Amino acid sequence: MSHPLSPGSVIGMLGSGQLGRMTALAAAPLGLRTHVFAPEPGPATLVTDLYTRAAYDDEDALARFAATVDVVTYEFENVPARTAAFLAGRVPVRPGPAALGICQHRVSEKTFLRDAGIPTTGWRAVSNAAEVAAAADALGRPCVLKTARFGYDGKGQTIVRPGTDAADAWRVIAGDKAELDAIVEAFVDFRLEASVVVARGFRGEVAAYELVENRHRDHILHQTIVPADVSDTVRTEADAIARTVVEALDYVGVLGVEMFVTHDGQVLVNELAPRPHNSGHWTQDGAVTCQFEQHARAVAGLPLGSVARVGDAVMTNLLGDDVDQVPTWLAEPHAKVHLYGKTEARAGRKMGHVNVISPRRG
Ligand SMILES: Nc1ncnc2c1ncn2[C@@H]1O[C@H](COP(=O)(O)OP(=O)(O)O)[C@@H](O)[C@H]1O
Ligand SMILES: [Mg+2]
Q: Are strands 206-208 and 182-186 parallel, antiparallel or unpaired?
Protein backbone atom coordinates (compact mmCIF):
# COMPACT_ATOMS: atom_id res chain seq x y z
CA MET A 1 0.00 0.00 0.00
CA SER A 2 1.83 3.10 -1.17
CA HIS A 3 -1.17 5.41 -1.32
CA PRO A 4 -3.76 6.43 1.30
CA LEU A 5 -6.51 3.92 1.98
CA SER A 6 -9.79 4.90 0.39
CA PRO A 7 -13.18 4.74 2.12
CA GLY A 8 -14.34 1.15 2.43
CA SER A 9 -10.83 -0.11 3.10
CA VAL A 10 -10.22 -2.40 6.04
CA ILE A 11 -7.78 -2.02 8.93
CA GLY A 12 -6.75 -5.37 10.38
CA MET A 13 -6.52 -5.16 14.17
CA LEU A 14 -4.60 -7.71 16.24
CA GLY A 15 -6.24 -7.84 19.66
CA SER A 16 -9.82 -7.43 20.85
CA GLY A 17 -9.38 -5.07 23.82
CA GLN A 18 -10.66 -1.58 24.48
CA LEU A 19 -7.89 0.15 22.54
CA GLY A 20 -8.93 -1.80 19.44
CA ARG A 21 -12.58 -0.98 20.13
CA MET A 22 -11.94 2.75 20.37
CA THR A 23 -9.73 2.70 17.27
CA ALA A 24 -12.46 0.90 15.30
CA LEU A 25 -15.06 3.43 16.47
CA ALA A 26 -12.82 6.36 15.51
CA ALA A 27 -11.91 4.86 12.14
CA ALA A 28 -15.56 4.47 11.12
CA PRO A 29 -16.21 8.18 10.37
CA LEU A 30 -13.22 8.08 8.02
CA GLY A 31 -15.03 5.35 6.09
CA LEU A 32 -12.60 2.69 7.31
CA ARG A 33 -13.72 -0.69 8.57
CA THR A 34 -11.89 -2.74 11.17
CA HIS A 35 -11.34 -6.51 11.08
CA VAL A 36 -10.33 -7.87 14.48
CA PHE A 37 -8.06 -10.92 14.77
CA ALA A 38 -7.89 -12.38 18.30
CA PRO A 39 -8.16 -15.71 20.11
CA GLU A 40 -11.04 -14.43 22.27
CA PRO A 41 -13.80 -11.91 21.63
CA GLY A 42 -13.61 -8.69 23.62
CA PRO A 43 -14.58 -5.00 23.66
CA ALA A 44 -13.46 -4.54 20.03
CA THR A 45 -15.52 -7.40 18.59
CA LEU A 46 -18.66 -5.83 20.06
CA VAL A 47 -18.36 -2.93 17.60
CA THR A 48 -17.30 -4.62 14.37
CA ASP A 49 -18.82 -7.49 12.42
CA LEU A 50 -15.47 -8.46 10.91
CA TYR A 51 -13.82 -10.86 13.32
CA THR A 52 -11.44 -13.78 12.95
CA ARG A 53 -11.30 -15.89 16.08
CA ALA A 54 -8.02 -17.77 15.97
CA ALA A 55 -4.73 -18.21 17.78
CA TYR A 56 -1.86 -15.86 16.94
CA ASP A 57 0.16 -18.80 15.62
CA ASP A 58 -2.58 -20.13 13.33
CA GLU A 59 -0.89 -19.38 10.00
CA ASP A 60 -3.83 -20.48 7.86
CA ALA A 61 -6.11 -18.05 9.67
CA LEU A 62 -3.45 -15.32 9.54
CA ALA A 63 -3.04 -15.79 5.78
CA ARG A 64 -6.81 -15.54 5.21
CA PHE A 65 -6.93 -12.45 7.44
CA ALA A 66 -4.02 -10.82 5.58
CA ALA A 67 -5.81 -11.39 2.28
CA THR A 68 -8.91 -9.48 3.40
CA VAL A 69 -7.34 -6.40 5.03
CA ASP A 70 -5.44 -3.43 3.56
CA VAL A 71 -3.11 -2.80 6.50
CA VAL A 72 -2.51 -4.49 9.86
CA THR A 73 -2.06 -2.78 13.20
CA TYR A 74 -2.34 -3.96 16.80
CA GLU A 75 -3.71 -2.75 20.08
CA PHE A 76 -1.37 -4.49 22.51
CA GLU A 77 2.40 -4.84 22.46
CA ASN A 78 2.62 -8.53 23.18
CA VAL A 79 1.72 -9.62 19.66
CA PRO A 80 4.12 -12.52 19.03
CA ALA A 81 7.05 -11.42 16.86
CA ARG A 82 6.43 -14.35 14.50
CA THR A 83 2.82 -13.26 13.96
CA ALA A 84 3.91 -9.74 13.06
CA ALA A 85 6.66 -11.04 10.75
CA PHE A 86 4.31 -13.54 9.05
CA LEU A 87 1.75 -10.82 8.34
CA ALA A 88 4.40 -8.30 7.26
CA GLY A 89 5.33 -10.68 4.44
CA ARG A 90 1.80 -10.29 3.04
CA VAL A 91 0.41 -6.89 3.96
CA PRO A 92 1.81 -3.66 5.46
CA VAL A 93 2.08 -3.90 9.26
CA ARG A 94 2.11 -0.55 11.03
CA PRO A 95 3.87 0.19 13.31
CA GLY A 96 6.45 -2.17 11.82
CA PRO A 97 7.69 -5.39 13.45
CA ALA A 98 11.09 -3.85 14.28
CA ALA A 99 9.57 -1.08 16.42
CA LEU A 100 7.25 -3.63 18.02
CA GLY A 101 10.18 -5.90 18.89
CA ILE A 102 12.08 -3.08 20.59
CA CYS A 103 9.09 -2.07 22.71
CA GLN A 104 8.36 -5.67 23.76
CA HIS A 105 11.53 -6.09 25.76
CA ARG A 106 12.58 -3.64 28.48
CA VAL A 107 16.29 -4.21 27.84
CA SER A 108 16.06 -3.64 24.08
CA GLU A 109 13.85 -0.61 24.78
CA LYS A 110 16.36 0.92 27.23
CA THR A 111 19.23 0.10 24.85
CA PHE A 112 17.38 1.82 22.01
CA LEU A 113 16.75 4.89 24.19
CA ARG A 114 20.40 5.05 25.22
CA ASP A 115 21.55 4.79 21.59
CA ALA A 116 19.09 7.54 20.62
CA GLY A 117 20.58 9.80 23.31
CA ILE A 118 17.39 9.87 25.36
CA PRO A 119 17.77 10.11 29.15
CA THR A 120 16.49 7.29 31.37
CA THR A 121 17.24 6.20 34.91
CA GLY A 122 20.32 4.00 35.36
CA TRP A 123 19.71 0.33 34.55
CA ARG A 124 21.32 -3.08 34.12
CA ALA A 125 20.18 -6.18 32.28
CA VAL A 126 19.99 -9.19 34.64
CA SER A 127 18.99 -12.80 34.22
CA ASN A 128 19.31 -14.40 37.67
CA ALA A 129 19.30 -13.59 41.39
CA ALA A 130 23.09 -13.17 41.65
CA GLU A 131 23.01 -10.54 38.92
CA VAL A 132 20.21 -8.74 40.75
CA ALA A 133 22.40 -8.53 43.86
CA ALA A 134 25.30 -7.15 41.80
CA ALA A 135 23.05 -4.67 39.96
CA ALA A 136 21.57 -3.44 43.26
CA ASP A 137 25.11 -2.87 44.57
CA ALA A 138 26.00 -0.91 41.43
CA LEU A 139 22.78 1.13 41.11
CA GLY A 140 22.02 1.56 44.81
CA ARG A 141 18.91 0.66 46.79
CA PRO A 142 16.01 1.02 46.51
CA CYS A 143 15.93 -0.11 42.92
CA VAL A 144 13.25 -1.76 40.82
CA LEU A 145 13.48 -5.29 39.41
CA LYS A 146 11.25 -5.91 36.37
CA THR A 147 10.72 -8.79 33.98
CA ALA A 148 11.89 -7.78 30.51
CA ARG A 149 8.70 -9.03 28.89
CA PHE A 150 4.93 -9.05 29.52
CA GLY A 151 4.79 -6.59 32.42
CA TYR A 152 1.79 -4.27 32.71
CA ASP A 153 0.01 -2.29 35.43
CA GLY A 154 2.95 -2.90 37.77
CA LYS A 155 2.81 -6.69 37.30
CA GLY A 156 6.14 -8.48 36.95
CA GLN A 157 8.07 -5.99 39.06
CA THR A 158 9.21 -5.53 42.63
CA ILE A 159 11.25 -3.01 44.62
CA VAL A 160 14.62 -4.13 45.98
CA ARG A 161 14.98 -2.23 49.27
CA PRO A 162 18.02 -1.94 51.57
CA GLY A 163 17.09 -5.12 53.49
CA THR A 164 15.68 -7.13 50.57
CA ASP A 165 17.32 -10.47 49.81
CA ALA A 166 17.99 -10.60 46.05
CA ALA A 167 16.79 -14.24 45.95
CA ASP A 168 13.42 -13.22 47.43
CA ALA A 169 13.05 -10.37 44.93
CA TRP A 170 13.92 -12.77 42.12
CA ARG A 171 11.22 -15.21 43.23
CA VAL A 172 8.62 -12.41 43.13
CA ILE A 173 9.17 -11.83 39.42
CA ALA A 174 10.49 -15.22 38.25
CA GLY A 175 8.74 -17.77 40.49
CA ASP A 176 10.89 -20.90 40.48
CA LYS A 177 12.70 -20.05 37.22
CA ALA A 178 16.45 -19.63 37.83
CA GLU A 179 17.00 -17.68 34.59
CA LEU A 180 14.78 -15.07 32.95
CA ASP A 181 15.34 -11.85 30.99
CA ALA A 182 14.93 -9.00 33.45
CA ILE A 183 16.16 -5.51 34.24
CA VAL A 184 17.10 -3.61 37.37
CA GLU A 185 16.43 0.14 37.32
CA ALA A 186 17.63 2.79 39.74
CA PHE A 187 14.61 4.08 41.67
CA VAL A 188 13.45 7.49 40.46
CA ASP A 189 12.30 9.87 43.19
CA PHE A 190 10.04 11.68 40.73
CA ARG A 191 8.02 14.87 41.22
CA LEU A 192 5.39 13.55 38.86
CA GLU A 193 4.74 10.97 36.18
CA ALA A 194 3.89 12.28 32.76
CA SER A 195 3.53 11.14 29.18
CA VAL A 196 3.46 12.34 25.61
CA VAL A 197 1.26 10.60 23.07
CA VAL A 198 2.83 11.13 19.68
CA ALA A 199 1.89 10.15 16.14
CA ARG A 200 4.02 9.74 13.06
CA GLY A 201 2.39 9.49 9.68
CA PHE A 202 3.22 7.44 6.64
CA ARG A 203 5.21 10.29 5.07
CA GLY A 204 7.19 10.96 8.24
CA GLU A 205 5.14 13.86 9.56
CA VAL A 206 4.95 14.02 13.36
CA ALA A 207 2.22 15.38 15.64
CA ALA A 208 2.60 15.22 19.43
CA TYR A 209 -0.14 15.91 21.94
CA GLU A 210 1.08 18.04 24.81
CA LEU A 211 2.60 16.61 27.97
CA VAL A 212 0.04 15.27 30.46
CA GLU A 213 0.35 14.31 34.12
CA ASN A 214 -0.50 10.73 35.14
CA ARG A 215 -1.49 9.75 38.66
CA HIS A 216 -1.40 6.06 39.52
CA ARG A 217 -3.09 4.04 42.26
CA ASP A 218 -1.70 0.59 43.02
CA HIS A 219 0.50 0.91 39.89
CA ILE A 220 -2.55 1.35 37.65
CA LEU A 221 -3.28 4.65 35.94
CA HIS A 222 -5.99 6.44 37.93
CA GLN A 223 -6.13 9.92 36.40
CA THR A 224 -4.61 11.93 33.58
CA ILE A 225 -4.52 15.69 34.12
CA VAL A 226 -4.15 18.12 31.21
CA PRO A 227 -2.30 20.43 31.17
CA ALA A 228 0.49 19.02 33.33
CA ASP A 229 1.79 21.39 35.98
CA VAL A 230 5.34 21.73 34.62
CA SER A 231 7.59 24.48 33.28
CA ASP A 232 7.74 25.33 29.58
CA THR A 233 11.27 23.93 29.58
CA VAL A 234 10.00 20.52 30.72
CA ARG A 235 7.15 20.63 28.21
CA THR A 236 9.53 21.42 25.35
CA GLU A 237 12.02 18.77 26.43
CA ALA A 238 9.29 16.11 26.64
CA ASP A 239 8.00 17.06 23.19
CA ALA A 240 11.51 16.83 21.70
CA ILE A 241 12.05 13.41 23.29
CA ALA A 242 8.79 12.04 21.87
CA ARG A 243 9.69 13.29 18.38
CA THR A 244 13.16 11.78 18.61
CA VAL A 245 11.67 8.41 19.64
CA VAL A 246 9.27 8.10 16.69
CA GLU A 247 11.90 9.30 14.21
CA ALA A 248 14.51 6.87 15.52
CA LEU A 249 12.00 3.98 15.43
CA ASP A 250 10.89 4.94 11.89
CA TYR A 251 7.47 4.61 13.44
CA VAL A 252 4.05 4.81 11.80
CA GLY A 253 1.07 5.15 14.15
CA VAL A 254 0.44 6.42 17.67
CA LEU A 255 2.90 5.74 20.48
CA GLY A 256 2.81 6.53 24.19
CA VAL A 257 6.02 7.73 25.87
CA GLU A 258 5.85 7.35 29.66
CA MET A 259 8.15 9.71 31.53
CA PHE A 260 9.26 10.75 35.00
CA VAL A 261 9.74 14.44 35.77
CA THR A 262 12.26 14.75 38.59
CA HIS A 263 12.34 17.37 41.35
CA ASP A 264 15.10 19.21 39.51
CA GLY A 265 13.16 19.27 36.23
CA GLN A 266 14.85 16.41 34.38
CA VAL A 267 12.70 14.38 32.00
CA LEU A 268 13.52 10.64 32.04
CA VAL A 269 11.76 8.15 29.80
CA ASN A 270 10.26 5.21 31.70
CA GLU A 271 8.82 3.07 28.92
CA LEU A 272 7.29 3.12 25.44
CA ALA A 273 3.90 1.76 24.39
CA PRO A 274 3.65 1.09 20.63
CA ARG A 275 -0.09 1.82 20.40
CA PRO A 276 -2.67 4.32 21.63
CA HIS A 277 -2.14 4.87 25.36
CA ASN A 278 -4.47 5.13 28.35
CA SER A 279 -3.01 8.58 29.09
CA GLY A 280 -4.28 9.73 25.67
CA HIS A 281 -7.95 8.93 26.31
CA TRP A 282 -8.64 12.59 27.23
CA THR A 283 -8.16 13.45 23.53
CA GLN A 284 -11.52 11.83 22.70
CA ASP A 285 -13.26 14.86 24.15
CA GLY A 286 -10.43 17.33 24.75
CA ALA A 287 -8.58 17.57 21.43
CA VAL A 288 -9.52 18.30 17.82
CA THR A 289 -8.40 14.82 16.74
CA CYS A 290 -8.49 11.95 19.23
CA GLN A 291 -5.56 9.56 19.51
CA PHE A 292 -7.59 6.68 18.03
CA GLU A 293 -8.56 8.61 14.91
CA GLN A 294 -4.94 9.73 14.71
CA HIS A 295 -3.74 6.12 14.86
CA ALA A 296 -6.22 5.12 12.14
CA ARG A 297 -5.13 8.08 9.99
CA ALA A 298 -1.45 7.23 10.42
CA VAL A 299 -1.71 3.53 9.62
CA ALA A 300 -4.07 4.23 6.69
CA GLY A 301 -1.60 6.68 5.16
CA LEU A 302 -3.99 9.63 5.61
CA PRO A 303 -2.79 13.06 6.75
CA LEU A 304 -2.55 13.47 10.53
CA GLY A 305 -5.21 15.59 12.25
CA SER A 306 -4.71 18.56 14.55
CA VAL A 307 -3.57 17.73 18.08
CA ALA A 308 -4.79 21.10 19.39
CA ARG A 309 -6.37 20.94 22.83
CA VAL A 310 -9.87 22.40 23.13
CA GLY A 311 -10.10 22.51 26.93
CA ASP A 312 -8.53 21.48 30.20
CA ALA A 313 -9.13 17.79 30.83
CA VAL A 314 -9.25 15.25 33.61
CA MET A 315 -9.55 11.60 32.57
CA THR A 316 -10.49 9.15 35.31
CA ASN A 317 -10.27 5.40 34.80
CA LEU A 318 -13.18 3.26 35.96
CA LEU A 319 -11.54 0.19 37.49
CA GLY A 320 -13.53 -2.79 38.77
CA ASP A 321 -16.40 -1.63 40.98
CA ASP A 322 -15.85 2.02 39.96
CA VAL A 323 -18.24 1.16 37.18
CA ASP A 324 -21.04 1.33 39.79
CA GLN A 325 -20.50 5.12 39.79
CA VAL A 326 -21.58 5.42 36.16
CA PRO A 327 -25.12 6.67 36.98
CA THR A 328 -23.56 9.50 39.02
CA TRP A 329 -21.16 10.36 36.20
CA LEU A 330 -24.00 10.33 33.69
CA ALA A 331 -25.89 12.87 35.80
CA GLU A 332 -22.91 15.23 35.45
CA PRO A 333 -23.55 17.05 32.14
CA HIS A 334 -19.86 17.79 31.44
CA ALA A 335 -18.66 14.24 32.02
CA LYS A 336 -18.21 12.05 28.95
CA VAL A 337 -18.53 8.38 29.84
CA HIS A 338 -16.71 5.75 27.76
CA LEU A 339 -17.50 2.15 28.66
CA TYR A 340 -15.78 -0.83 27.07
CA GLY A 341 -18.66 -3.31 27.14
CA LYS A 342 -17.04 -5.63 29.70
CA THR A 343 -19.60 -7.39 31.85
CA GLU A 344 -17.48 -8.81 34.65
CA ALA A 345 -16.07 -6.09 36.97
CA ARG A 346 -13.02 -7.81 38.47
CA ALA A 347 -10.87 -5.76 40.88
CA GLY A 348 -8.48 -3.48 38.97
CA ARG A 349 -9.98 -4.37 35.59
CA LYS A 350 -10.29 -1.40 33.22
CA MET A 351 -14.06 -1.13 32.64
CA GLY A 352 -14.17 2.34 31.13
CA HIS A 353 -13.14 5.94 31.73
CA VAL A 354 -14.67 9.37 32.11
CA ASN A 355 -13.42 12.59 30.54
CA VAL A 356 -14.32 15.89 32.14
CA ILE A 357 -13.43 18.85 29.95
CA SER A 358 -13.52 22.42 31.24
CA PRO A 359 -12.72 25.73 29.52
CA ARG A 360 -9.01 26.27 28.89
CA ARG A 361 -7.27 28.28 31.55
CA GLY A 362 -4.11 28.73 29.54
N1 LIG B 1 12.61 3.09 38.12
C2 LIG B 1 11.48 3.46 38.75
N3 LIG B 1 11.52 4.34 39.77
C4 LIG B 1 10.38 4.70 40.42
N5 LIG B 1 9.15 4.22 40.13
C6 LIG B 1 9.05 3.35 39.12
C7 LIG B 1 10.20 2.92 38.37
N8 LIG B 1 9.77 2.06 37.42
C9 LIG B 1 8.44 1.95 37.56
N10 LIG B 1 7.98 2.72 38.58
C11 LIG B 1 6.57 2.85 38.99
O12 LIG B 1 5.84 1.70 38.61
C13 LIG B 1 4.86 2.02 37.60
C14 LIG B 1 4.76 0.90 36.58
O15 LIG B 1 6.03 0.67 35.95
P16 LIG B 1 6.22 0.57 34.39
O17 LIG B 1 7.67 0.39 34.13
O18 LIG B 1 5.56 1.74 33.74
O19 LIG B 1 5.51 -0.79 34.05
P20 LIG B 1 4.06 -1.15 33.53
O21 LIG B 1 3.31 0.14 33.29
O22 LIG B 1 4.36 -1.88 32.26
O23 LIG B 1 3.50 -2.00 34.59
C24 LIG B 1 5.34 3.35 37.02
O25 LIG B 1 4.27 4.06 36.43
C26 LIG B 1 5.92 4.01 38.25
O27 LIG B 1 4.88 4.55 39.08
MG1 LIG C 1 3.98 1.89 32.50
A: unpaired
